[in-house]
Every structure is written in C-alpha cells, then in structure tokens.
Amino acid sequence: MIETLEALAGLMRQDGAVRIYAKKLAPNDNSKNQVYLGGDFSALNIIPHGAVTTDDAEIAGSVRDRAKAPIRFLWIDESGRYEAPNAQLILYPKYPEVRMSGFLKGANLKGARDAPGDVMRVRDEGRVLFLGITQDGTVLGHAVPATSPLARALEVRSDLEPLGVFLEIPAEPAAGSTRAQLLATLEAIYRRHWIPSQKLNKYGVKQPYAARNGGGYTLEAELGISPNGYSEPDYLGWEIKQYAVTDFNAYRPTSVVTLMTPEPTGGFYRDNGAEAFVRRFGYPDKSGKPGRINFGGIYASTKVFHADTGLQLRMTGYDMAAGKITDMDGGIALVDRHGEIAALWKYPGIIEHWSRKHAQAAYVPSLYRTPPPEYRYGARILLCEKTDLTLFLRAIADGTVYYDPALKIEPATGLKRRSQFRIRHDQLVRMYHQSELVELDVAHSA
C-alpha cells in the first residue's frame, strides 16, 4: 500500500508523470454517475484528450446535447499498470460541465486484478482520485478510500494549490510549488540581462537564431522547453508566452495577442477550399501588386458587414444571454448578406484548439536590440490560471475577441493562409478565471 503523497509522486514520476492532481470525490463521483470535473470547460485544459466528437446516441431527445473525447488512461499501483481503454471525457455544453466516464470498463491486464472498482463504484465520502499527467498526454490514475493513509495525508495538507476542482501536488515535493519554481527561474533569467537570440534544435541544444521572431524561442531555450506531444510548450505545467514591449517602465505591448489559429471546419471554405474562398470573397491588393488577391480585415461580432469582403462574424448555436452552446453543430461563422456561411469553425474543433492551451500561463515581457540580435526579459510577470472555453466564447460574442485573417494569392507563390483569433493584451485576463501581476524580487539585480 502507498502510504505517503511523496511515495505516490515518486511512483507516478517513474511512469512519466510531470504534473499530479488530486480530486476529492463526492458521493455522485462514481462509475454510475461519472466523475464531475467542474461546472465549466476548464478541465479540458488540465486533462489531455483526443479528438472532440458529438455523441451519436440520442440524449434527452437530441443528438446535439453533448460531446465526448477519449483519454489514454492507465490505473497504476505498486503492482503495475492497468489500461482503461474506454475512459473518456463527456462535455455537457448546456450546463456547462465536464465529466469523466468509462474508467472501469475493461480496465484489467491479462487477468490482473480489476481497476479500483471497490473505490470508484461506491458513494462513500472522503474517497480521493489522483491523476498524473505525462509528457505525451497519458493520464495515470490512482484511487483510494477515505480510510487510506493517502486520503488522510491529503486532508491535513493546507499548502496545496487549487486548480478548478483539483488540488495540485508537486511532482518533486522537495522543490516546492510549480509557481514558486517558475518565478525563481524567471527571476534568474531577468538577472541575465541581454541574452543572445537562440533556439533549441531537435536535440535540445541551443543554437543562434537570427530571425526577428526569436523572443519566444530564446526564452524557451533558457527554460529548457521543448514542445510536447499534445499541447503547447510548457515549463512545469505552465504555458510560457513572451510578448514584446516598448520599455520596462510602461510595459506597453507592441502587438495584440493571437489566441489560436484554427482552420475553418465548415462552410464554403471547407467545401471548396481556401483558394476558392479567397477568389470569391477576397479583393485585389490595395497597394497595387499585380495579380495579388487578399482576404484580410477585422471581423468582430459587433461589426457590420466588411466593406471589402461582404462578410460578417456571427455565432450560431449559441445562447449569448446565457453564455452557453445550444447546438454542437454550430460555431463561429463568417456569413454573407444572403445568409450563406462562407466559413465556419464548428464547436468541436474550437474546443480541441482551445484545450491545447494550459490551465496555467505566464506572460513575460521582452525587449529586443540588434546587432547582434539579443533579448532581455522583464520583471513584471502576468500569471493567469484556469482558462476556460466559455470565457473565450463570451468574448467572441461581445466582440472582445475578433477574427484577423491574412490570406492571399500571389501569381509567383500561390496561396498563403493564416486564420487568427486575436485579443488586445489589456483584455487578456478575460480568458482566465484568475490572474495576478507579479513583480519579481529584483533587489539584487543591477
């Protein structure tokens, strides 16, 4: 029997866990009622999952009431690992909420003991579900009853950081919280002052980088970050985002924030291709470049039809007053004056893209100078936690988040496409339930 949180963390680290969470189970958290993961979609940014699909089964009279996404889930204990091949997340957009189901069905390995059905089938108070997240997106599970040493050890801990319905357990207990480790590392980078522009190669070796977009690569190289298998690069579970500023006094950003860059999954764009879309809805280059056709502009739900393209941004299958999805076949749409959908980003695809963002993010300001190309990182760090798709959709609905495409066709190079949903930096905190501006301890910095 595993008796301490440190021993559990060690076991999960052996199986590749880089982040560990605990969920105190309520009576309704069981194999019959599913495990409740929160009254929003923030759990999707904590638990890695596969493609989001709408459920073909009829639920409450409609096939559009929910969606699901598979999880690669393994139960682990001191005797081994046991795959749960039917584990999945269930999304109920009309509430909204996320639940986990299928975590016991078929969960055994070549006659080995069943997964912890004695814990997960009952309604006892005080049970705990521990989840370990690996770098490749596997979820490791370990469940204990209320009478276990692990449940009692968790109950007396008051220092663990909450994240939605979870408590975060340090994967390296002696190192402290991931927040403290992150800030200490960013402070050390701040104290380095000007750092040569660089980028990690595929072997994790720093190499000089001359292009102008090296701010993020240089910071990631200093943090030792390499992209992982299922989401954006992170440091101890925190997504790290660098942004350029004019100086370290006003910290005024030089550009807006790109939240995500999904391709449309419906409408004329999907049916006929991006090139046909640009030729139909685009316009001749305004600087006079011969043969070039552009599709650009700003599209927000509060704006009228665009003068150059004749399109307007709208949301379908969404209750703006309630802030909820009502039809999973709907989405964010560009429509023309006749109501034809020129491009559609369906909700399952939007959910998948948004869930690649981490539940925790640190936004780090930078300065640039050349020659040679160098970056310096500031002491004022914006820490944001608990991102949630519902916040993104509300911001689309009120025009805070907007579509800012950059598609073009040129005779020499052909089609270039870039679909971007963006937000002003000063509105960024609206994408998270919690945010804090932290000044690093720079007393010893020159």
UniProtKB/TrEMBL annotation:
Boundaries of every MvaI/BcnI restriction endonuclease domain copy: 184-432
A Pfam entry, by short name: MvaI_BcnI
Superkingdom assignment: Bacteria
Entries under InterPro entries matching the protein: MvaI_BcnI, MvaI_BcnI_cat
Protein name in UniProt: MvaI/BcnI restriction endonuclease domain-containing protein
